Amino acid sequence: MRSPKLRWTALACVVGALSLLIAACGGGSSSSSNAADTGASGGGGGEPQTVSLQLDWTPNTNHTGFYVAKNKGYYEKAGVNLQILPYSEGSADTLVGAGKADCGISFQENIPLAVAAGSAEKSVMVIVQHQVNSLIVKKDSPYKSPKDLSGKQYGGFGIPYEVPMVNEMIKHDGGTGEVQDVILNTGAYEAVYHGQVDTSLAFRTWELIEAKERGIELREFPVTDYGVPDTYNVLLACNDGWLEQNPELAKKFIQATAEGYEFAIKDPKEAAKILIEENPGGFPNENLVYASAEMLAKEFYADEEGHFGCQTKERWTKFPQWEFEQGIIVGSDGKPVSSPLKPEEMYTSEFGPSWCEES
């Protein structure tokens, strides 16, 4: 299995490719599953309505709730036929924003960049409530905290926000920042392990578990411990036009999906088993899947009130404001935007899980 770490690679091309694909496709609204096409209402005895979902990479533990909802019949009960689209070279943001998929897996770090560049999409439900990345170094390295990494080599992925994020961590810790960015993509972690670069960003819910299993001793510095605002690290985004045309279908799809993740919170072991069974041959290291599912259930799926999927205006203000201050949000003309995006341009709670209350 190609691990969730490779979502960095998929994200790296989103802004540059986005404007080209939107222009080619007319920017538009997704029509792959609107009610006029299917002739069905869903959940009311008619034929189920299709919803297309673009994954950000190959199936992994971040996607567990979709496979649980499918396996447990939650979609069938809601009158939804979920069509999971395989990973493609275009990012999920690009394809959703251009109307080539109804919904897709995205990240709060990415949404401001995509929307400012012209993507017609909004976050509709949070999957991972908190930032899961940590800056990693070898445990036997001389780097005891982020400030020690000033001017050192960072193994990166070519994403606009990653180097500003790392530099912010270093400065917050008392260093000067200014890491040397060496774009390595999927080889970044092995480069750290073998001493070829000094540090990289890695997922606590995957790479750090995998490294421990391999006996690789690392020191980690969680991103949000060092001055960077927390993010909804993984989320579900849908095409604006599709939401407008299919509000009831959207609500049914999102509610059924949320119930799948609620199951994953309550029984991560069984949820991981379902994920593995639904993707035969996709997970050579099944122990890693179980361990990742357990960590996500305990620490990352639910908010402070114990609810899955909810999002707030406050959280949709802080991190996009930070990205704006870094000068990395650019418009379709390639120039930095003159003011931060408004939260309502990036997310909506209208279609979210029934237990969420806007705050």
What does this entry look like structurally?
With 359 residues, the chain is α/β, with parallel strands linked by helices. It has 16 helices and ten strands. Strands 2-1-3-10-4 form a five-stranded mixed sheet. Helix 4 packs across helix 12, helix 12 packs across helix 13 and helix 13 crosses helix 14. The N terminus is likely disordered.
Instruction: Provide the spatial order of strands within the biggest beta sheet.
Output: 2-1-3-10-4
Per CATH, the class of the largest domain reads: Alpha Beta
Q: Provide the CATH architecture of the largest domain.
A: 3-Layer(aba) Sandwich
Mean pLDDT: 89
Number of helices: 16
- Largest beta-sheet details: 5 strands, mixed
Q: Helical proportion?
A: 25-40%
Total discrete domains = 2
Structural class: alpha/beta
Q: Total number of β-strand segments?
A: 10
Report how far the terminal alpha carbons are from each other. Answer: 39 Å
And the CATH topology of the largest domain? Answer: D-Maltodextrin-Binding Protein, domain 2
Shape descriptor: globular
The radius of gyration computed from the alpha-carbon positions, rounded to a whole number of angstroms, is: 20 Å
